[in-house]
Amino acid sequence: MKCPKCETINPPDSKFCKECATPLPSGAQDKSSFTRTLETGTDELTRGTVFASRYEIIEELGTGGMGRVYRVHDIQLNEEVALKLIKPEIAAEKRVVERFRNELRTARKITHKNVCRMHDLHEEGKTLYLTMEYVRGEDLKSLLHRMKSLTIGAAISTARQIAEGLDEAHKLGIVHRDLKPGNIMIDKDGNAKIMDFGIARVRQEKGITGEGAVIGTPEYMSPEQVEGKEADQRSDMYALGVILYEMVTGRVPFEGGTPFSVALRQKSETPVNPRTLSPQIPQSLSSLILRCLEKSREKRYQSAAEMLGDLRKIEDGLPTTEKLRSLKRFSTSREITVKFNLKKLSIPAAGLIVLIIAAAVLLLWPRHKKSGLAGVWIAARF
C-alpha cells in the first residue's frame, strides 16, 4: 500500500506509514481515489481526494468571502467536519494569519449548542485551511430565499436560540461582528447554530467613510460599524434585530443599489415598522425589533441576556399551535426529499402497475371466457 503523503510502499495490512506515520486508507476503500493535493491543486478537490493526508473530500458546500468550504471525512478522527480553504491573497499576509490564529484561539472557548464549534487552523504547503464542526442542514439565508418569511413562532424560536448562543459568546468577551442569515445554520432538527465567530475581525477592509475599518455585510451592519467604529455586543444585537425583521417580513429594513447606499441608510434612516409590512406580527415583537434597530447603541438592548428575557415572554404568550411551528418541518435534506417523493409517487405508481397487469390480462386471456375476464377487470380496478 502506497502512502498518500511520502509514497513509501507499506505492507497491505498497515494502518500507518512506516516512514512518516501518516494514516493509510483502509483496504475496503478505492485506493485509486486517493490523490495528493499538492499535485492536483486546491481547485481540483473532487470527491475522494484526500487533502493534507487526512481529510477525504465528500462534497463542496460553497464559497464565501474567506474561501471555499467542503464537507470532508476526517480519517484520523473518523468523523465528518467542515473544511474551509482560505483564499491565497488572505493567507499570504503573515499579519493576517497570526491574527487569524489569535481569533480562533479565542473562538474555540465557546462551547454552546447554538454555536458551531471551531477546531483548528493549519497550513498544507502554501494553503491555509480551517476545520470546524459540520452541521447537516441549510443556512438561514437559503431557507429564507426558499420560504420568503417564517411563521411568528418559528422566527421567535430561531431568534431566541441565536440570542442564547450570542449570550454565551458575549460572556467570554467575544463579538461576532458579521452576524447574518448566511452565518446561521439550521440543522435537520430545526436548531439554529451560529457560524464563523472570530473570522469577521480578520476580514478588515478600508472603511466606506474612509475612516477606520468596516467589518460586516451592509444589510446587517450597525450604524457604528458603517462609521468604522469598534463593534461591541450591541452591534450583534442590531444585526439580530435585522435578521428577526427579515424572518417575519421577508425583507431587510434597508435595501439599495450599492453597498454604499445601504450603509448610508443604516446610518441615517428610520426603518419601516414591521407591523406595517405584516400586520399579524404582535406589537410586543415589533417593539423588540425596533429597539434592536435603534441608531444609538445606548438605546438598544445592552446584552443578549436582556433581549432573551423579552423574547421568552413573547414566546410564552403565543398560542400553543404557534409555538409548535418550529423550523424542523421546514428544514430539508436530500434523504428527506427522496423519501417524500417516493412516498408521494407510491399511489400513482401502484395504479399504473395494476393497469399494466390488467392490459396484459386483456391481451392474453381467451376471448370466449368473458365472465372470467370481467371478474379480473373488477379486481384490478380495486
Descriptors for this entry?
alpha+beta; 11 strands; elongated; 14 helices; Transferase(Phosphotransferase), domain 1; 3 domains; 382 residues; Phosphorylase Kinase, domain 1
Task: Give an account of the 3D structure.
The protein has 382 residues and is α+β, with helices and mostly antiparallel strands. It has 3 domains: 35-133, Phosphorylase Kinase, domain 1; 137-329, Transferase(Phosphotransferase) domain 1 (Transferase(Phosphotransferase), domain 1); 334-381. It has 14 helices and 11 strands. It has helices at 37-40, 88-91, 94-107, 140-147, 152-171, 223-226, 233-249, 259-268, 274-277, 283-292, 304-316, 320-323, 334-364, 370-381; strands at 50-51, 55-63, 67-74, 79-86, 118-124, 127-133, 137-139, 184-187, 192-194, 205-206, 213-214. The strands form 3 sheets. It has a 6-stranded antiparallel beta sheet. It has a 3-stranded antiparallel beta sheet with strand order 7-8-9. Helix 5 packs antiparallel against helix 7 and helix 13 runs antiparallel to helix 14. The longest helix is centred in the C-terminal third of the chain and has 31 residues, at 334-364. It is elongated, with a radius of gyration of 27 Å.
